[in-house]
Amino acid sequence: MNVAVAKTGKGRAVSDLFTSAEARLPGSPDVIAVRREAFETYERLGLPHRRIEEWKYTDLRALVGEVLPLAASPDGAALKRAAEAVKAHAIAGASKLVLVDGVFAADLSDVKALATEAGFKTLREILDSEANPAASDLLQTVATDAVISLNAAMATDGVVVTIADGAQLSAPIQLIHVATATGASAFTRSHLRIGKGARATIVESFVAAGKTSGYHVNDAVVLWISDDADVAHIRLMDDAPDAVNITSQFVTVGANTKLNFFNMTTGAAVSRLQGFITLAGEGSELSANGVNLLQKTEHGDTTLVVDHAVPNCTSREIFRAVIDERAHSVFQGRIIVRPDAQKTDGKMMTRALLLSDEAEADNKPELEIFADDVSCGHGATAGALDESLLFYLKARGLPEKQAQALLIQAFVGEAIEQIADDGLREHVIGMAERWLERRS
Amino acid sequence: MPAVQETVERVKRIDVDQYRYGFETLIESDKAPKGLSEETVKFISEKKNEPAWMLQWRLEAYRRWLTMTEPTWARVDYPKIDFQDLYYYSAPKPKKTITSLDEIDPEILKTYEKLGIPLREVAMLEGVEPKPGDQDPNRRKIAVDAVFDSVSVATTFKAELKKAGVIFMPISEAIREHPELVQKYLGSVVPTSDNFYATLNSAVFSDGSFVYVPPGVRCPMELSTYFRINERNTGQFERTLIIADKGAYVSYLEGCTAPQRDENQLHAAVVELVAHDDAEIKYSTVQNWYPGNSEGKGGIYNFVTKRGDCRGDRSKISWTQVETGSAITWKYPSCILRGDNSSGEFYSIAISNGYQQVDSGTKMIHLGKNTSSRIISKGIAAGKSQNTYRGLVTAHRKATGARNFTACDSLLIGDKCGAHTVPYIEAKNSSATFEHEATTSKISEDVLFYCIQRGLSQEEAVGLVVNGFVKDVLQQLPMEFAVEAQKLISISLEGSVG
Q1: Which of A10, A102, A121, B35 is most buried, most CB within 10 Å of its CB?
Q2: Are residues B420 and A361, on separate chains, in Cβ contact within 8 Å?
């Protein structure tokens, strides 16, 4: 139910923030007009709250309250700190594209290496260019979603990557978001366009430099994949323990294409990944999976909408959440099967493992089906670790924590093993192991 | 997999244009002036000879209602209802004070006869002693409360029930005769401020059934209420209150039909169940309100709030519903599992045809320790209908050992309809175990293997297991309804889409 709610004093604070940030936002006058409109939408809606069905379990008004001011452009010292974080989180052999506090950092990125395989520009470049009348198209919004509108209004930078038809990328492209500014917001938006028959692996990492804390990230990704392509898309969100990360993804998949998507959440006090994946071409296969590892009072939300717009597509979703202490995990999955999308095969499975009596798991696996010759299913479970399994391991001499860790690894393993690339899969398993070590 | 031909034909047989209860009874009636105001509320209260506290209760609800807005979250679409364009009270004009069944307007009796509802105890008693070779030896006695528009016209077997200590009477009578019970329980499960339609009902409800089963008593027969909307432009607002005291057991069922009309009619009922320690309430519904014609014109808006409160330890509430009627259905029979070791069940079969819209499901709210709930829902959408299952399962932080199992299947027949599943699963403590599934393939492999090994095909095996399970539930429905329901249930699950 979308109710108009009187704006809080906190909503007003953002309005001031927009005015003060406006001068720093890239874009020709046309673009600025689009931004203003998006901002007005945001102002009208305010931060999402629990009375809005899509945000029922992630009440940003209660969890976040206010949007922090725009981070300053990173200076030399900030870039230096960022360089260290990049080094620590870089995937071996990947072409890196680094955004520091929402600004593209050319010196930390492998632009030259990438340029041989793909077209590259920054969002800022395109928005600023007067010669590009379609620039404002890069700031599309969804009229009913306030955080996406806010992103369009405030996005300072991002990457725009075009992979040509038939290109077979030898190395992954790794987009690294580094935060160096404590108590500030970064707004980014990236566009990735993958050509016909192309093959590519895209990794997104969200990290903090050193002890950076209490920052907000609002990211948007528009991924457009043409026919006959084969794409792996891995998102690793390991932001600082008190950060906020809200990411919106819009993915369009062409015909006979394979997309293997995985999201890992191991950081941030409040996070939400909302993915809107449209299967727009026949014969495509989607595998969209994720793991939330949450502790303390963390709140992790994964919302995936898979829209089968055409016949003969397959989608699989496997989601696992491990929730410790007073953390709160949310999974909202929706499979839509449009009237013409016959022979759709969609399956979704979400499981939550509660490690503490104060942990909370909310699952909402939805099906919305308008075609009669389809096979769709979903399953959801929530529960604690199996006592008998724990006992078995402990009886064989494993300490409690280690026995738990083993069972947790097996539990999340079902989702992680969906990652097709061996190296990346190992990387993700390493992240899970580190999280378990932190826990014990 | 698309639906098999047999299923398609069976659903067609209960399509909207096959509605068999669409006749109208011509009868003089006594109506409240059109529209809703404090005057209307007072009018109803006065008609019912209610004590002052009841009127006060109604007026508070009415004032609260004025501040509320209609809910819009359900997946149903209908033109805005003009609440001032309705009659809130309509009763068949009494010729004189009725002392026996014979004095009821013969037109009304005829109506119930046509509907196959036994209002004459004699007629039913014949069935008590099964003749040798009788097809159904399980035929039981059923006490009926017949509600015609806004009033109860007859309640059978009252004397026999009284002997057992069971109170079964129209709620309007109970307000006068057992005010202490009504005052204690009315609104204690569905408060007057609960939701838009429940609040409206609290203000203007005219009749319904009241059941009280004293401690340790097993109600000697099935209780049932038959609701009939007859008058044009009226809304029916009935209120049912069932209390099972410690260790009591009662099985209750309701049926509903309405004449075929071009305009939509509103039915906003509230049902409250209270189960004390070790008590069990079984509530069954066969809902067959007029669904509108094949163009989607007319039909009943069925906006109902049903809630059971397992107040005592080891109590049990079970909802069974077979939904085939109504233009729009909006109802979520729920269980509040407050007592330790209490359990709730929800079995539902919702079949939509024509332009029907169904948004139905349940809520299982686990508050006590070691509570368990089970949800089995089966939705079948045909024609241009939309069929949504919406369910909530939640375990409170202190509800340790809560368990839930949910299975919902839906089936689409044709490509103009939609089937949707919207489950909300909220686990707030680690010892809660929730399982939700929405496919038929999840039937235990062992069981399937067993059947297949004995020569059944995979299909037959699935059919046997699933239908066997559902049939189990439906066999608990009293006879009149079981026959009809069985027919609906035999609809194959093949082609289920989850």
Answers
A1: A102
A2: no
Q: Return the residue matching tokens 């860790």.
A: A405
| B497 touching chain A per CB within 8 A | yes
Q: How far apart are CA A360 and CA A434, in angstroms?
A: 22
Query: B3 CA to chain A: closest CA distance, Å?
Result: 8
Taking a C-beta distance cutoff of 8 angstroms, is the pair B310, B280 a contact?
Answer: no
Residue B99's Cβ-count burial label (10 Å; 0-12, 13-18, 19+) is exposed
Report DSSP letters for A113-136, one per residue: HHHTTEEEEEHHHHHH-TT-TTGG
pLDDT band at residue A61 under the 50/70/90 scheme = very high
Q: How far apart are CA B358 and CA B301, in angstroms?
A: 10
Strand partners, A61: none
Q: Which residues of A touch B (CB under 8 A)?
A: 1, 53, 339, 342, 352, 354-384
Q: Complex ipTM, two decimals?
A: 0.86
Contact B17, B356 (CB under 8 A): no
The pair of three-digit structure tokens given for residue B484, joined into one six-digit string: 């009809």
What residue segments make up the domains of chain A, in order of their start? 3-281
DSSP B391-443: EEEEE-TT-TT-EEEEEEEEEE-SSS-EEEEEEEEEE-STT-EEEEE--GGGS
Which pLDDT value is given to residue B498? 40
CA trace torsion B320, B323, B327, B329 (10° rounding):
30
The continuous run of DSSP H or E covering A322 comes out as strand A314-323
Are A369 and B412 a contacting pair at CB < 8 A? yes
pLDDT tens for A84-124 read 999 999 999 999 999 999 999 999 999 988 888 889 999 99
Measured between alpha carbons, how far is B361 from A129 in angstroms, rounded to an integer? 54
Measured between beta carbons, the chain B residues lying within 8 angstroms of A374 are 497
**What is the C-alpha to C-alpha distance for residues A20 and A6, in angstroms, rounded to an integer?**
23
Q: Residues near B23 by Cβ (< 8 Å), separated by ≥ 6?
A: B114, B259, B260
From CA B379, how far away is CA B407, in angstroms rounded? 11
Query: Distance (Å, rounded) from C-alpha B358 to C-alpha A87?
Result: 56
Measured CA distances, B93 to B49, B86, B191, B226 (Å): 16, 19, 32, 19
Confirm if A139 and A170 have CB atoms less than 8 A apart: no
CB contact under 8 A, B495 and A372: yes
Of B352, B327, B257, give the one whose Cα is nearest residue B22: B257
Q: pTM of this prediction?
A: 0.86
Identity of the residue in B3, B430, B432 whose CB atom sits nearest the CB atom of A355 = B430
User: Residues of A with CB below 8 A from B73's CB?
Assistant: 1, 53
- Using DSSP's 3-state secondary structure scheme, residue B249 falls into strand
Q: Supply the pLDDT for residue B122.
A: 40
Q: Is the pLDDT of residue B126 over 70?
A: no
What's the pLDDT at B138?
43
CB-CB: which of B412, B423, B495 is closest to A365?
B423
For strand B316-323 and strand B343-352, is the pairing parallel, antiparallel, or unpaired?
A: parallel
Please give the Cα distance from B468 to B456 (Å, whole number): 15
Smallest CA-to-CA distance from A73 within A153, A157, A191 is with: A157
Q: Which residue among A356, A362, A383 places its CB closest to the CB of B432?
A: A383
The radius of gyration computed from the CA coordinates of chain A, to the nearest angstrom, equals 21
Residues pairing with A216 in the sheet: A185, A244
Give A-chain residues touching B432 at CB under 8 angstroms.
354, 382-383
Q: Look up residue A78 and give its two tokens.
A: 């900030």
| B251 lies within 8 A of chain A by CB | no
Q: Which of B366, B421, B435 to mutate to test the interface with A (most CBs of A within 10 A)?
A: B421
Which tens digit of pLDDT belongs to each residue from A112-168?
Answer: 888 888 899 999 999 998 777 788 888 888 878 999 999 999 999 999 999 999 999
Alpha helices (H) along A90-118:
111-115
